[in-house]
Design brief:
single chain; alpha/beta; 8 helices; NAD(P)-bd_dom_sf; Sc_DH/Rdtase_CS; SDR_fam; oxidoreductase; SDR family NAD(P)-dependent oxidoreductase
Length: about 230
């Protein structure tokens, strides 16, 4: 069966994607920072009859990234790498004049440096896969200027550029950067805790990501709303 590595997989969009792939029979290697929550997610996904390896840890740790890829190798390889783990840089978000260098550094380390490090670690297995693919979770904050979203948005813009260059350098792979749009996630709640407007469940975004896997369009940046509407 195909194998996916998914970071930030214990809840939110990461868990929703993992569950959709488990339902399709994919074997999974899951990462998250909270062991108890990740363990519960893995147990739920194993009910689909798939093999699930759950490795708690921090994606900024090179040893942890190597362990994720080693676990995937034991399951048969890496067909899909989903870089979903994200850091805001400040919780709640703050204006740039207040953003600490340490906070910005953390956002860049998690959202960009770790994502690249994991790709580098997984590239040999992605090359060996019949249809290797990398999916990075972007944000509209990478392309639009929103007050207080500067550090996070800058990190996601950098991730978009890394994905674009990776696609140019690795024409044999599919590399998709996806803006999922608004979602009700813990990350958003931490970013803007006083915003209680209703937002879509992350599960509603999953069909857009599955469309990419099913149709394998050209590498590039995609918006989930357009994919859900049948556009590219």
């Amino acid at each position: 069966m195909p194998v996916a590595i998914i970071t930030g997989a214990s809840k939110g969009l990461g868990r929703a994607v993992a569950e959709a792939l488990a339902a399709r029979g994919w074997d999974l290697v899951l990462d998250a920072r909270t062991p108890e929550v990740l363990k519960g997610t893995a147990a739920a996904l194993e009910e689909y009859g798939t093999r699930v390896t759950a490795l708690p840890g921090d994606v900024t740790d090179a040893g942890h990234r190597a362990a994720l890829v080693a676990a995937a190798r034991r399951l048969g390889g890496v067909d899909l790498l989903v870089s979903n783990a994200s850091a805001l840089g400040a919780e709640p978000l703050v204006r740039l004049e207040e953003l600490s260098p340490a906070g910005l550094r953390r956002a860049l380390e998690v959202n960009v440096v770790a994502a690249l490090g994991l790709v580098q670690e997984a590239l040999p297995l992605l090359h060996a896969a019949p249809a290797g693919a990398v999916l990075t979770v972007s944000s509209d904050a990478a392309a639009e200027a929103y007050e207080t979203w500067g550090g996070y948005g800058a990190s996601k813009a950098a991730l978009d550029q890394l994905a674009a260059v990776l696609a140019a350098e690795e024409p044999g792979l599919r590399v998709w950067a996806v803006d999922p749009g608004d979602m009700a996630t813990d990350l958003y709640a931490a970013a803007v805790p006083d915003d209680d407007d209703p937002r879509p469940d992350p599960v509603s975004v999953v069909p857009a990501l599955l469309r990419l896997l099913d149709e394998r369009p050209a590498s590039g940046r995609y918006g989930a709303p357009a994919l859900l509407e049948g556009r590219r």
